[in-house]
Fold Calcium-translocating P-type ATPase.
Amino acid sequence: MFIANLSVKEALDSLRTSEEGLSSAEAQRRLKEFGYNKLEEIKRQSVWLSFIQEFTHFFAIILWLAAGLAFWAESQAPGEGMFLLGVAILGVILINGVFSFWQEYRAERAIAALTKLLPQQALVCRSGKLQTVPAEMLVPGDCIVLEEGDNIPADCRLIESAGVRVNISTITGESQPKARMADAVTETSHLAAANILLAGTWVVSGQCRAVVFATGRHTEFGQIAHLTQAEKESVSHLQLEIARLSKLVAAFAAILGILFFAIGTAIGLSFWTSLMFAIGIIVANVPEGLLPTVTLSLAMATQRMAKRNALVRHLTAVETLGSTTVICSDKTGTLTQNKMTATQIYIHEQLVPVEAHAQYEHEIRLIQNAQYCHNLKKSLQGKHYVLLGDPMEIALAEFGRKSHDFGDIPVESEIAFDSERKRMSVVIEHEGVRWLYCKGAPETVLPRCRHIESRGNIRELDSAGQEQIITAQNTMAREGLRVLAFAYCRLEPEQMPQEREMTFSALIGLQDPPRPEVKEAIERCHTAGIRVIMVTGDHPQTAVAIARQIGLVKTEHPLVLQGEALRKMTGAHLHLLLESPEVIFARVTAEQKMHVVKALKRKKEIVAVTGDGVNDAPALKIADIGIAMGVAGTDVAKEASDIILLDDNFASIVNAIEEGRTVFENIRKFMTYILTSNIPEILPYIAFVLFKIPLPLTIIQILAVDLGTDMLPALALGAEPSDKKLMQQPPRPAKERLLSWGLVARAYLWLGMLEAAASLFVFFFVLNQSGWEYGVMPGKSDPMYMQATTACLAAIVMAQIVNLFICRHPRSSVFSLKLDYNPLLWQGILVEVALILLVVYTPWGNALFGTYPLDLSVWGLMIVLAMGIGLLEEGRKWIVRRYFSD
């Protein structure tokens, strides 16, 4: 039998307990049987395993192979420089791995979230005596005592109740506190039963006694937490793309290395020369700087997003957010202010906005009713007192104080609120006269009113007057307002308080108003091709009313789906209904919200989900992007999320999406920049084998570019500011590749070839100036040869400086882009120039990289060729803009 359907005695009997509680011995026995009242810890991946994984991805494996070959070659033929090469490659692996791990480790700070929401202590009755015990020691059958402000430690059945209202938003998402009572009910759901208290919620007002019937893993809270743990996290688009890029580049590098090792051997090169050549091909193909640059770029994006109130927990979430096509947004606290406010009032037989009625100071009875008819408590915070309790009562008290503050008047007595009466009353004495003030649901207050006050006159409340009040109530309800009726009566000095023959004074409509900036944010989403769907636990009328106010709903009849209907729906039916242009989900549970997200993902949508409660955690975890509220959010929701909003504001999501789109474009920019230099690094080796020329670039010089001069400029491209046009475009297709054929063609076949031609031209120019003849192979320490390789290296660096400006935009002219918007750009150039000068003109640079000082004439030639590359690319962009624009 469902415990909510039983009487108090039957409920206690079913748990083999009594109002005196369990004995200590029985409690200990049940603790062994049922276990501790706590949730299972989330299984986390070992820190060491995470660390090791940073050294086992495809890029790293190829570099491990190259280092192993270098050390083996050194053991077979000492003195060929292979040991230094092997050490350099190991350094690359170590720097990449440690840096990537550190960034992820910082972003993934471990927080034990699932146990924090439950209270640490509970007041329990054992053997007829009240005692405080750790909440984890509670067992089914324990009788506990709760009062206003207490968190509920386990699922309980009420056995005594006095004015209890409970905030259950963490479980159901409903913003309004719910009244609770001890009597048996007919509902068959823990979420709907009015005599059930759920773990993880809290008492807003009243006092009660309750018997525990479920603990730990078996509570509703525990079931949702289990759903969260059971669902696997989504793999981001960027993770998939980086994995794909790693495989492609690694496979290409390995195949090319083996192929040209075979070619070198076939044309008569020595084994060691062919091996060095193969290793060089591999090192030149693997963009060693790409992964740390991606990681750093994402880290910088997270810092920019933090300034816009979005804290990123997982680095790759930054890019995924930019490809979002659908946002499933919670209502309370995200689209709204999470603060009840009096917005409309029916007074003097007319319905007006609260701020439009300026005569409240004459409505003494109404104002005193709002100020004193509540169960709020005062708390000193700093130098000021604040009200604690039901948000609705706080809003009414503030309305009363704002109109006219009568100061502290003691309440003589109170007729408490309960779920059957749906009203409460207080008695106060003002200027020697006792007054009873009543507020509650209009349907329970109106029948007890005999008169109505209008503009200072009191007359009888007839049926026409009642009909007019009911019409006003319905109008306010359709606008999503919570409507309360206010009435009063004068008491004689010794008269017992009675709620009858009262005078009706007003209806007040309260609302959790939308955040003022949300409407513009919704409009930006629509402009950017992003669909917004409200998914809430609140009432459908409230949801639709808020949706209209923020511009989410514009048609007369939007599709409103309630949780109960959703529960009975097939997957195909839901799939078809999601095609509707305007959809709102109301009264949904945690599992139902998760089904909505799964259905959208089956439609190939990139789904971002917002939430703050325990009930939101499963949906947050399976979404492409989970966005938790930082202010009102529970730790469970934050743990399941990828991004935490520091201000709980929907507008911050839109700002974060703009940053995400910018990140994707910026990654493409610096990928173009980094991959371009691969071609002038590869072609010298191919020319060395095929045309029997001196090797124009050494392996250590390749690493000087990839992990030295290219790093900071690439980061500068990763920090490029947002292009405002990005939020005027639809989301990019889900299948769009990070490494597209267009990017490959531009980097490898156009810019890379131009750089290779320029660097080889400078190499041969220096050789010819020194009197070199074709077919002569100079020694590795020959100054003529060292100066030529130095010129080839410097020419690549000079071309990359120009390439930095070229890569800022794939179509727009360099001259149309402002240079002062990205200070890191100039810092990158200064560092790049400083590094190449150190490599060329310092003794340690010469010794480490095998370089030799260059004449000024060589620098002049390099600069002219680099500028020529820039002009050719400007010509290509002009042709694209002129003949291939959309």
